[in-house]
Design brief:
The protein is an alpha/beta fold. It contains 12 helices and 24 strands. The strands form 5 sheets. The protein has an 8-stranded parallel barrel, surrounded by 5 helices. This is Endo-1,4-beta-xylanase A.
Length: 542
């Protein structure tokens, strides 16, 4: 299926990005995106497949790429068919004169049909001659055939144009306000003032118990965000460090804070598959005792907080770790989802994972591995599932990030960036630069429903990235957040009605209040602006 497909419409701002993606294995490949881009009429060459330093006797297709430009964003896609294995994780990589980009896209290919790989890259230095090649990630000998390949470059300006195009069409909407008297006569020249009072798009951050009683922190948070997630305070090791002794005091107080300011909250998390973050007493349980403890955990947490949290991360990072399935069997995770859904039927239950959009080098969490796991759970009867992408970046690869979200969007499930930050290893200035790239990419992708930062503030700093110092003075990442918050809202608008008694504008989705004055008459009203392709019409009588 092709969500929000954009064909290669060439204009003054270059091609429109093509969101097409496929996750089913097809008898025949589809046509190449962008008619092939710079690979049009460029057949692949065949290179000897190498394992370690040894030629295998097999050959793998590759492309010779000339004169790749520094600063361009390259979107790559191809169809792949394999022989010699039932399935294989095929990785595309890029070798230039200066370095090897280990992974620019992956696909879990199946024998005898065509699978779609979508990815991309950005160079950190120009290249006169590069080699784009494919290999089986587990280094086994298989035959790889490719077809309908495409490589489309975008300049930074063209990429930003595409982002803004999607923001204008997906995050904003046209409004026409009609002003008339009580008899229905149009009123020309009526003065109108419009203010956005809340935003439709959830944009928030993690908070910790450090926000309790800290009025400057609370004020700073409420001025910016409409969504929150508790960093650690709902995790099992925090609420029940000793068996049978549950303590929800901190979580209760944090929930009072967000509820008191009309902030929505994600529930993070019910279980964490990493044994390192599982309570010590739980690690010592087996069989029926562990099953009993698990059931008690779900019942205790979900009955206490029923309908309080919009989401629950049910089994955190289960592509990388499998503590519970090792001990309780392969259906343990499905049982978690079933029980959580029965306990809180209106909460969206998420699969939350790292290294899905951040990179494709992690074989445990490739986009197709994620999709396969979701489908397994769906076949088992999982309800109201959502896609959680942690988004802990070092240096973002934006074409890859977008391509991965394109493929995930074929599932037609809610997609959230759930724990966005940039590694402290790059320094504070680059944290700001890279954060802006990631946030613009997330907000402009039509399939992303919300963004959460992982920036809970502690006396000694934050997990990886802080927005401010301890005195709430912005760091570079905080400057970026404040700039984008302002850019992504409709500021106060003033105007007068035209000869038709109307006033029109484009506004970001959300809630608005409008004040109208005409002579000695005045009226106030409010209206909602939800997503739609149609113009919103709103009438006011004076």
């Amino acid at each position: 299926m092709k969500p929000l497909s954009k064909t290669c419409e060439q204009g003054t701002d270059g091609p429109l990005y093509d969101f097409s993606a496929y996750t089913e294995c097809k008898a025949q490949p589809e046509e190449p995106l962008y008619q092939g881009g710079i690979l049009k009429d460029e057949p692949p060459i065949m290179k000897p497949a190498i394992i370690g330093k040894t030629a295998t006797g097999f050959y793998t297709p590759a492309f010779l790429l000339k004169n790749l430009t520094l600063g361009n964003l390259y979107c790559f896609s191809t169809w792949i068919k394999i022989q010699g294995a039932n399935s294989a994780l095929i990785r595309a990589s890029l070798k230039t004169e200066n370095r090897t980009y280990n992974c620019i896209g992956t696909v879990l290919a199946k024998n005898g049909c065509w699978s779609f790989l979508k990815g991309g890259f950005v160079l950190d230095s120009p290249s006169n001659l590069a080699l784009l090649l494919f290999q089986n990630s587990d280094d086994k000998d298989i035959d790889i055939t490719i077809d309908s390949s495409s490589l489309q470059p975008f300049t930074d300006q063209e990429w930003r144009f595409n982002q803004q195009f999607m923001i204008n069409t997906q995050r904003k909407r046209a409004v026409t306000i009609h002003v008339s008297d009580q008899q229905g006569n149009r009123l020309q020249g009526a003065a109108i003032t419009i203010n956005q009072v809340s935003k439709d798009f959830p944009f928030g951050s993690a908070i910790a118990h450090t926000i309790l009683g800290n009025l400057p922190y609370q004020n700073w948070f409420v001025e910016r965000f409409n969504a929150a997630v508790f960093e650690n305070e709902l995790k099992w090791y925090a609420t029940e460090p000793d068996q049978g002794k549950t303590n929800y005091t901190l979580a209760d107080q944090m929930l009072e804070f967000v509820r008191g300011h009309q902030i929505i909250a994600r529930g993070h998390n019910i279980f964490w598959e990493d044994p390192k973050y599982t309570p010590a007493w739980v690690r010592n349980l087996t069989g029926p005792d562990l099953q009993s403890a698990v059931n008690s955990r779900i019942q205790s947490l979900m009955s206490k907080y029923k309908e309080e949290f919009i989401h629950w991360d049910v089994s955190n990072e289960m592509l990388h770790f499998d503590f519970y399935e090792q001990r309780l069997g392969p259906d343990a995770t499905l049982h978690f989802y079933e029980t959580a859904h029965q306990s809180d039927p209106l909460a969206t239950l998420f699969m939350n994972e790292f290294n899905v959009v951040e990179t494709c080098s992690d074989v445990k969490s490739t986009v197709d591995t994620y999709i396969e796991r979701i489908r397994e759970l769906e076949r088992g009867g999982m309800y109201m599932d959502g896609i959680g992408l942690e988004s802990h970046f070092t240096v973002p690869n934006l074409p890859l990030m977008r391509a991965v979200i394109d493929k995930l969007a074929t599932l037609r499930l809610p997609i959230w960036l759930t724990e966005v930050d940039i590694s402290s290893s790059v320094g504070k200035e680059l944290q700001g630069v890279y954060l802006e790239q990631v946030l613009r990419e997330g907000f402009s992708h039509p399939s992303v429903n919300g963004i959460m930062l992982w920036t809970a503030l502690h006396p000694k700093g934050c997990y990886e990235m802080c927005l401010t110092d301890e005195n709430f003075k912005n760091l570079p990442a905080g400057d970026v957040v404040d700039k984008l918050l302002k850019e992504w809202e409709s500021g106060e608008m003033k105007g007068v009605t035209d000869e038709h008694g109307s006033y029109s504008f484009y506004g970001f989705l959300g809630e608005y209040k409008v004040n109208v004055g005409y002579g000695d008459r005045a009226a106030n009203s409010t209206f909602s602006l939800p997503r739609s392709d149609e113009t919103k019409h709103f009438s006011i009588h004076l």
